[in-house]
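Moderator note: this is an archived Q&A kept for reference. The question asked for a predicted structure of one protein chain; the sequence and the answer are reproduced below.
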Amino acid sequence: MKVVVSRTVLTLFTCLSVAFPAIAELTFGAAPFPTYIDDEGEPARLNAIVMEAFKRADIDVTLQVLRPAFLGSGLRSGRLDGEYGFIGLDDKKDDRLYSTGYLPVNLYVAGKRRHVLDIQLLPHLQNERVAIENRFANSSALRLIKDVKWARNPSTFDAFRQLADDRAPYLMTTGLLIDEFNRLLRADDEELLFLSPTPLFKSHFYLSLSKTTAEADAKVNAFNTAIAGMQKDGSFNKLLGLSWLSKDIDQDGVGDFISSASVAHARIAPELLKLAFALDDVPTGEKSAFYIDDNRYSTWEEAAKALANAPIALRPSFLDEEVYSQIIRRW
């Protein structure tokens, strides 16, 4: 199978043996988003997840990273079959099918001061200046909110820079991006950002596909099935660079913990389970099971043995250290 990721000509083969030509069956687009979506050699977690899911579904695809205006025109004109980074904060279109949400988009408030820990509801930000990217501020869920002074920014970098320069006391962005920025701060021995104890907005990334596509339902269902398998077998841990995830795999109303011995762990310790990135809203508990590389374990002790050979290390940030160094220097 061949998977193409490009603005124009970049081609990647997911087969490590003999690659053979194939015409892409579907073409999806998305707007660039640091650490999530990229085609210039930077980490791109959504690209990697979507490519692997379609590989498992045996569907050839082309992924194009486009500026928002070109993405919109491509979807309207039919040049693109769908979008692979649709954020559910916007309204869904009637002429498109949507996958199940395959990665949470949880918007937290971050700041340099500890009182951020007291912010749990949007009214707590009334009349406060909050740095935010246009992709979120212009969404259906946020654009009509007037009680917050949104300090809009065209890019992730500009939003973080506005916070660093103290032009806004708060930043609203995804929890995963805050974690990546904190990894840069930790590596430079700087004080980390505080973030709100809960997200103020919760949504997901979705794959969308035009309803006019042949066998559209079957293709979206195949994508969903592949994603569910990847979330369970440790693939998501590897592609996201996260030691622990949680999801109710057993469908028993209790979230389970998921990991892989191929992923770096700061240390193998049960207290780090509280840092697990949740893929759904089901809370973990005493009856949580452990899935390590697709093997189920009932106890922490069994899971820890399965992780005995996991690398012990702190993963560096997926954000470009050189690009963000000018922000870190101002900290």
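Archived answer notes: The chain has three domains: 2-103+204-232, 104-202+317-328, 242-306.
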